């Protein structure tokens, strides 16, 4: 026990000598004098933040900026007909909720005299037949061939009439 007490007293003496030794606090005193000399209230106030304003995109129905503009000759522009108009009373099909540009033909199926086209778009591959509707502009499938699907769209002419516009989806090979 005596050795342990001797070791403990030696340790305590060395620790206290480190705390009591040397009274050179000149660097600490200089720092405190410098801090006391600073003017009060030198902290800048927080900046005022502007509230967030939500942005609603309003150009969804306009032409894509990544496609070249179409030049239209107003004198040669087709005039719509009051006789041609879409049937607004009919129940819309699923594929009419998507733009026709998103679809591509990937194949055909035939059985018992009926021919079907396989079109990819709207999250999958869909089977369409002559008479089905496709695209947002009342596009109706009019012809299914081994290499293409012909669709006739009914679009407004801008003057209260309607125009029939033919479109084709050609077969995309190796898809």
UniProtKB/TrEMBL annotation:
Protein name (Swiss-Prot/TrEMBL): Type 4a pilus biogenesis lipoprotein PilP
Organism this protein belongs to: Aquipseudomonas guryensis
InterPro entries: PilP (IPR007446)
Entry keyword annotation includes Signal: yes
Keywords recorded for this protein, A-Z: Lipoprotein, Signal
Gene this protein is translated from: pilP
Signal peptide stretch: 1-15
């Amino acid at each position: 026990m005596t050795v342990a007490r001797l070791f403990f007293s030696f340790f305590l003496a060395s620790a206290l000598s480190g705390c009591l030794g040397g009274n050179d606090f000149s660097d600490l005193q200089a720092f405190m004098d410098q801090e006391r000399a600073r003017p009060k209230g030198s902290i800048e106030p927080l900046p005022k933040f502007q509230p967030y304003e939500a942005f609603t995109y309003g150009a969804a129905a306009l032409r894509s900026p990544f496609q070249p503009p179409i030049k239209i000759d107003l004198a040669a522009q087709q005039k719509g007909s009051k006789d041609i108009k879409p049937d607004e009373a009919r129940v819309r099909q699923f594929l009419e909720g998507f733009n026709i540009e998103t679809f591509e033909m990937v194949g055909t199926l035939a059985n018992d005299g009926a021919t079907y086209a396989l079109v990819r778009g709207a999250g999958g591959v869909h089977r369409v037949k002559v008479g089905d509707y496709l695209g947002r502009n009342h596009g109706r499938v009019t012809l299914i061939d081994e290499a293409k699907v012909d669709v006739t769209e009914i679009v407004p002419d801008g003057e209260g009439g309607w125009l029939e516009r033919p479109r084709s989806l050609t077969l995309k090979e190796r898809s």
